[in-house]
Amino acid sequence: MTIQLIVIGKLKEDYLRNACAEYIKRLGRYCTFELHELDECRLSDNPSDKEITAALAKEAEQIKRYAKGMIVPMCIEGRQLTSPELSEKITEAGVNGQSTVTFIIGSSFGLAPEIKAMGDLKLSMSKMTFPHQLARVMLLEQIYRAFQISTGGKYHK
Predict the structure, then answer these.
(1) CATH 3.40.50.620 for the 2-150 domain, yes or no
(2) For 8-51, how does the pLDDT look when each residue is reduced to its tens digit (9 = 90+)?
(3) 72 has which bridge partners?
(4) For a pLDDT cut of 90, what percent of the chain falls above it?
(5) Where are the domains of the chain?
(6) Counting beta carbons within 10 angstroms of the beta carbon of residue 82, is it exposed (0 to 12), middle (13 to 18) or buried (19 or more)?
(7) % of the chain at pLDDT higher than 70
């Protein structure tokens, strides 16, 4: 199975890059992992709705080049799952012939409606708001935890 993570923007802090690298390394035991860091559109300090919509559309075009398999956009209106439920969804994808699961994290303004509409499962981490860079670490940890659960590993308690 291949797990893809498509993200808008790059990690700036070393400690976040190191955390992501650790989970990506751990995932290597369970899947092929692909990370696609795409450019974030630059906006003015106080962008208009029209400017935001245009930026999201431009980011969507980049995302569509890589999105395949089971598409999982991360968005606030998505479903909240327990770790075992996420594990089950990833396992089901493989059983149902999906060789790739693609998670998508947008920019600070979110994702274009067309990307959300592509989603087989819209997923939300929480009702709380997290920095997008931290959300990447949290999602990678949950994907690793999902594989640990499905293989009976001791990581998940």
Answers:
(1) no
(2) 999 989 999 999 999 999 999 999 999 999 999 988 889 999 99
(3) 103
(4) 85
(5) 2-150
(6) exposed
(7) 99
- Any residues with CB less than 8 A from the CB of 102 and at least 6 apart, and which? 3, 4, 5, 6, 66, 67, 68, 69, 70, 71, 72
Tokens read off for 110 = 């979110």
- Does pLDDT of 69 surpass 80? yes
Residues 36, 26: Cα–Cα separation, whole Å: 18
Residues, the chain? 157
- In the predicted structure, residue 157 carries a pLDDT above the cut 80: no
Pairing mode of beta strands 32-38, 70-79: unpaired
Sequence-separated (6 or more) residues with CB below 8 Å from residue 112:
53, 56, 57, 59, 60, 106
